[in-house]
Amino acid sequence: MSDKPTIVLVHGFWGGAAHWSKVIVELSSKGYTKLRAVEMPLTSLAEDAERTRKMVAQQPGPVLLVGHSYGGAVITEAGDMNNVVGLVYIAAFAPDAGESPASISQAHPPAAIANLAPDSDGYLWARYDKFHESFCQDLTADESLVMAVTQKAPLASTFGDNVTAPAWKNKPCWYQISSEDRMIHPENQKMMSARMNPRKVLTLAASHASLASRAAEVSALIDEAARELSKH
User: Which residue stretches, if any, does this entry annotate as coiled coil (predicted)?
Assistant: First the structure.
């Protein structure tokens, strides 16, 4: 697999790098040994993109960036690096220049928007008692419980940070739509994926947490992207 790119996985809001646990195992079983998952502070798009750039810069050879949810905005902002050869979006934001996840969400607010609440420190939380139905309704109650209790809240202001130069305009892209998503409206996912002219769009009847509930299909899409890129 030495000709394959290093796969760098970028998490979103309300979770950390471990949200990729099932995808990591799936990709490892396919022979991928160069796997990395960024742990971002979720304090601003600029800081999260910088943390991602630092990890990408540490990798020898080409890198395939994979972003879930808000992680899509991060790979859009950080994906202009020379060694980034492609971008995979998993139920993710893919803002254009001057757009933010917040501005995109205004067109079609997600079903679970009422279940998000800021605390007195400015962090935005998904309500613990509504986490299962909001974020991952196709996971088990136990899996949802762990996700809810370990959720990583972003600073609410991060949601409004604008992308400056979208990497999807210059890099090969792939996109997975979750048609049952309650955190990013499926219509917004369709809009974002269509305008990036992706190599492939995969639609799954999945929740926002497709990286966990449909890890095999998500990993297959990442594998397909990595194989296609390694031909060049």
Answer: none
pTM > 0.70: yes
CA separation for the pair 127, 94 (Å, rounded): 25
| pLDDT tens digits, one per residue of 33-56 | 999 999 999 999 999 999 999 999
67's tokens? 């972003």
Residue ranges of E strands in the chain: 6-10, 35-38, 63-68, 84-90, 116-118, 124-126, 173-178, 200-204
Q: How many residues does the chain have?
A: 232
pLDDT digits (tens, 9 = 90+) for 198-228: 999 999 999 999 999 999 999 999 999 999 9
Structural domains of the chain, ranges and CATH numbers in brackets: 6-230 (3.40.50.1820)
Which has the closest alpha carbon to 192: 107, 79, 82, 65? 107
Long-range (24+ apart) CB contacts under 8 A made by 41-46 are: 42/13, 42/70, 42/152, 42/153, 42/154, 42/155, 42/158, 43/154, 43/155, 43/158, 44/155, 44/157, 44/158, 44/161, 45/73, 45/74, 45/77, 45/100, 45/158, 45/161, 45/162, 45/163, 46/77, 46/161
